[in-house]
Amino acid sequence: MSLFDYLPAYVLNHAPKIIAAFEMDFLRNLSAFQKVLGKGEKFTMLLQLGWSAELPEVAKELENRLAEAKGAFPEARFIVLANAPGEVEIISKFNEVHLASHNAFLDPARYPLAKKGKRKFDALYIARITPFKRHELAEKVKNLHLIGSYSEKEKEYFEQTIVKFPNAEWSRKVPSFFIGRKICEASCGLALSAVEGAMFSCGEYSLCGIPVVNTRNLGGRDTLLPDFSLRYAEDTAESVAENVEYWVNNPIDPAEIRQEFLNLAKPQKEQIEEILNTIAGKRVKLPHKLNIRCRLLPHTKLLHGIRRAK
pLDDT of 278-296, one tens digit each? Predict the structure, then answer.
């Protein structure tokens, strides 16, 4: 077994044990976690939502899998972190849940503030090129930067999509530590999916101080977006382009956007900090994105990872 073969989770605190994971990363790998964590072990599991639990089928799977997890770990405490108020209402019927968007756990220090004035691009869309991201709604944006890769199984879809953007700049991948610089080059960010989770990119747009052209959606990305830096487009390419043009011509002070995002995120993050500090009896450090679905240095994995059983 490789030294770096770890389960998709991060240990925030060792004694008492507090673990963070995306809900289905844990729940769909329950048997693998059972091989490592004993049935009688007491631990607290924070579960972030990767997809909208306002969809009945998603909520039902979450309920069923959580029931299975509680049977596997009867001494454990499972806390779901919801991205949207509607999810809190639904999940509270079968599990402990708190409104704490995963964007509230972004580290502001990683994101520079955009400068005032003319930007290189009218709009930026950070999104994997996959159908649910609805890139076609950005086809009429004049000066666009697309950042996002694609899975090999969707290569044909990618090829069919990217040819629709002959004048756009496409970057397959930008290292996470440099993504803020790219965001600062655009007048606004795009959020075009109809359903997903809270969309980290939306939080990143706001921390860099650029406004957002959004579509109506489920998933909770609206929760921490400042109202004054948000415009809703209809589900048409013409409407998206029109709203992009609005932000190009009506810029907002980047510092105001960033500060209001932080104001909205602060109570959500502090609530979770208070809960965890009470459990641990000390201050629990909450790292960037809770260090889940993040690339970690080997020594960080060694100290905070959960190694798979042989």
Answer: 999 999 999 999 999 998 9
